[in-house]
Write a structure and sequence with these properties.
Layout lengths: L7 E2 L4 E6 L2 E6 L1 H7 L2 E5 L6 E2 L4 E7 L3 E5 L4 E6 L2 H4 L3 H4 L8 E5 L11 H8 L2
Antiparallel strand pairs: 1-2, 2-3, 3-9, 4-6, 5-8, 6-7, 8-9
Length: 126
């Protein structure tokens, strides 16, 4: 599995890419693999200010539904509308086209509390 070194990772299997004061957030290839074929995204939190580790939506796969947790605090600016028409995009391209939300960060220093790729690999036993 691929875990890009330019991203940060949450123990809850979300990834974060920083672009100025905006964080792009998605789920890891590991999470997508564990979920299986993703069929629906429920992200009701656009426009909401959420704290770190708060639920910002859920993802539904063929076999299960899983909550999504904010790896950092901030305001949800945008949901990746491509996922409405093609929810499984995360299964094929989790780190680029399959991003989930963009968030205006409250405290960019929170990103430093997340795992780097090597430590995330250790977390999942890779």
């Amino acid at each position: 599995m691929n875990f890009p070194s330019n991203l940060k990772y949450a123990e809850s299997h979300e990834w974060v890419k920083v672009d100025g004061d905006v964080a792009i957030i998605g789920i890891t290839a590991y999470a997508a693999d564990q979920l299986g074929d993703i069929v629906f995204w429920d992200i009701p939190s656009v426009g909401e200010a959420l704290e770190k580790e708060e639920t910002f939506g859920s993802v539904e796969a063929v076999k299960t539904v899983s909550d999504l947790f904010m790896p950092i605090s901030g305001e949800v600016l945008e949901f990746n509308s491509e996922l409405e028409a093609n929810p499984g995009l995360v299964n094929t391209d989790p780190y680029e086209a399959g991003w989930v939300v963009k968030v205006k960060m409250n405290d960019p220093a929170e990103v430093n509390e997340l795992l780097d790729a090597d430590n995330y690999k250790k977390l999942i036993g890779e």
